[in-house]
Amino acid sequence: MAPDSISSLAADVAACRLCPRLVEWREEAAAKPPARFAGQRYWARPLPGFGDPNSRVMIVGLAPAAHGGNRTGRLFTGDRSGDFLFASLHRTGFANQPTSDATDDGLRLEGTYISAVVRCAPPDNKPLPGERANCLPYLVREMRLLPRLRVVVALGSYAWDGALRAIGESAGAAARRPAFGHFAEAQLGKLTLIGSYHPSQQNTFTGRLTPPMLDAVLVRARELAGLD
Questions:
Q1: Is 46 left (phi over 0), alpha (psi -120 to 50) or beta?
Q2: What domains sit in the chain, N to C, each tagged with a CATH number?
Q3: Which of 94, 156, 164, 223 suits a disulfide with 198, CB 3.0-4.6 Å?
Q4: pTM score of the predicted model
Q5: How many Å from the N-terminal Cα to the C-terminal Cα in the chain?
Q6: Backbone angles phi and psi of 25, in degrees to 5
Q7: Using CA atoms, how far apart are residues 113 and 223, in angstroms rounded to an integer?
């Protein structure tokens, strides 16, 4: 058997059809897009992670957006949460540009890898427990395939919980369940988990998460990962 790799993992993720509800939802979103995306060809499949294979920092989100990553084929690409996230990644030295609009837009990540707990867009952004369980092995594999990984940034409480579960599976280091909070830190074996509020419009429009707040989390991640 060939050794596992990022490319083989990406192929496995993209071909996954384990969750009938999510398959139906992602394909329905593609078949009935809003007017602003009419005529665009949607990816409409599960989304692999992406980034620097030598990453020391992993950023974990909840799931793709129905008309963001599910449309473009890349996590946090083509939606408002991604606009907020990539502007911060650019300011903090992880991305070569502040925007992420399409898979051919020239974006490059350095020192970081972006992933999610669930790989298909879920209805109302609320995956079911069984859907998370089906997806979690992909996150575990990603963590194992990033040999220099030292820091995991969880965007939101759902990602925090998923990251804890994945770290426990990949390294056996997450028996305890530290509470989520913005700028919360937990040392779990060789990995440090840092929490941040999710860059959703609900958080960014209300000021619950501001650009300096997210920048501070990413600067801290750089520091802990030894990137500065």
A1: beta
A2: 6-225 (3.40.470.10)
A3: 156
A4: 0.96
A5: 39
A6: -70, -45
A7: 16
